[in-house]
């Protein structure tokens, strides 16, 4: 297994995080995303014509995009079957679409603030706020039901892995999570999954009581 | 909008504060870090580490202490006092290093707080002893007065009561309480309580969430064209002048400034009486593991006892007192004369036996009643999941004090009973056999045992600075026959110390105040720096290395070998 990886990318982190939680060994090939724009180099474009990270290589097959890679890893390497259960696939896929929306807004704001991307920051932040309100409400009622995770299962799924990073990195795009207490608690729960790893900007939390 | 910092407001729901979480809140622009300790106590603190100003809401709630994520400063549950600074692992932080905490109370499923209180919390008139249903809080990007205006149209029932901060709506026998938390000038949180609990809470929660969200959208639409009001400028209280400066060297001698009630007195082991002391005000001051207090006794004596408390326990102090028939009468007085319900005077905690928390492994060795400071240390190490061993030497099972605390530590504890001095020495040598760099050992017990342990540590290659010890008392015969001169370099005074008097006494007689505690060379409180001359060390506080350096002196017992001693005071 090989991950074409950029340390500061939340999407690459999704893959690193999931592989770590499953306890799988993998190689990384660091890509100079910023400022080198190596993901737009000929060599990388030949792997992923869209010029995006992460790219994942396993037994000579190439997978692009974090959601595809997460589902691929879950289907092939998750012995527990909890991470991408057949019964809840629709719901999980749905939350992965939400994760894409979070990437388009919260991650865009972060790209603007930390990587100097030229984009409409107000629109990006407003969009993230709107999504976070939906997410917070969903998680608040999940808690009331006694559920810890995005999808109604006793265990976290790749939906949680997929939505977590750019939520947890939102402050780097100037989006505070103060108004979203249920999201903040869910972040603590994700951080307490066995095998959790950090990345720059995503801190650990304390151990559960 | 009128800013009234003296009003109490709900700032979080009880359910916002699961264990080991830090909630990020705000009231009138003041950011709050709100967290529940494992004992259930809720803390509302300024969201700012004293050290570098990093938000404590990204800190780690470790159950009894909150750790800043930046440089690891630790703050205690309840008092908000700093208990540990990783950059100074061998030192106890000053008691004055304390975070800014807000008054708070948890009631009716909400946590209430206030920025600048003028009175204590009063139950809103419409709330009685019911257990209401706490609705999902709704955050609205609009000023509080405007939100209140719109809220009168909330589709529930008649508005029967209104105040600056709340509103009551009545519908049949049911009531809806709405509280308006002014987060900042342009942001408000509505917190609702439904009385009584509806039959199907989830349905009610969903319903009100939908109505409240609709209200939010309506209000936010109404203000959408307007420029947001300027954020409230928060005035940070500057650090008090006396804290920002180097403190004066001379503070008074023993000071027993706290009053404590003997809430419980019980025999925790043969000849060992435990005392649970409770504060009259809400809290006792912050303490660190290894700390002791001076206790003023009805017979006029002053005695030092180690705190056995675990981290963050400042609602009470617990001490253990061994009855010592041969003693000067302190322990007897506590055993026989002090009763439950009595009020005694105690000092704030001192710590001359600080616990490092950066050791790869900590070994605690206790003999007899020497267990007390080590209990406090063991509980702190356990809470932080740091590796440690606790070795307890007692004569019989009946001599084992505070078994209920030991029970919680069990797997990490080894108890040795009825060993001869020789066998004790052998066991200790075994325990200390394999010294690894950055291990630390803490020993407290009778003098003979301490000497044996220190010797064993030395033989096994433990450096002096990794061996920490606390004597109960100085059992050495003090030789006070010498006569010498002390030159006080800062005070520009030269004084004579005659036979039969101590340096400490002479200093006091000449109007120089020096803090002291045990006055028998065991506790280290009256430590002073030596600039010139050769001290005649008679204490059991300084290590061999410290004594050999001739740079420190314990002024209550030690004297001078040279004709003159120059002291830095």
Brief account:
By secondary structure, chain A is of the alpha+beta class.
Describe the structure.
The complex is a heterodimer of chains A (209) and B (569). In chain A, helix 1 runs parallel beside helix 3 (66-77), helix 4 packs antiparallel against helix 5 and helix 4 (89-115) packs parallel to helix 6. Chain A is built from 7 helices and 4 strands. In chain A, 41% of the residues are buried. In chain A, a hairpin with a 2-residue loop joins strand 3 (55-58) and strand 4 (61-64). With 209 residues, chain A is of the alpha+beta class. The mean pLDDT of chain A is 96. Chain A has 2 domains: 2-77, 3-Layer(aba) Sandwich (Glutaredoxin); 86-191, Up-down Bundle (Glutathione S-transferase Yfyf (Class Pi), Chain A, domain 2). Chain A has a 4-stranded mixed beta sheet with strand order 2-1-3-4, with helices on one face. Chain B is an alpha+beta fold and 569 residues long. Chain B is 17% helix and 31% strand. In chain B, strands 12, 13, 14, 15, 16 and 17 form a 6-stranded antiparallel beta sheet that branches. A 6-stranded antiparallel beta sheet of chain B has the order 21-20-23-18-19-22. Chain B has 5 domains: 1-122, Rieske [2Fe-2S] iron-sulphur domain (Rieske Iron-sulfur Protein); 126-231, START domain (Alpha-D-Glucose-1,6-Bisphosphate, Chain A, domain 4), CATH 3.30.530.20; 258-346, Translation factors (Elongation Factor Tu (Ef-tu), domain 3), CATH 2.40.30; 361-471, 3-Layer(aba) Sandwich (Rossmann fold), CATH 3.40.50.80; 484-567, Beta-grasp domain (Ubiquitin-like (UB roll), Roll). Classes of the chains: A alpha+beta (209), B alpha+beta (569). Chains A and B meet through helix 5 and helix 7 of A and strand 2, strand 5 and helix 2 of B.
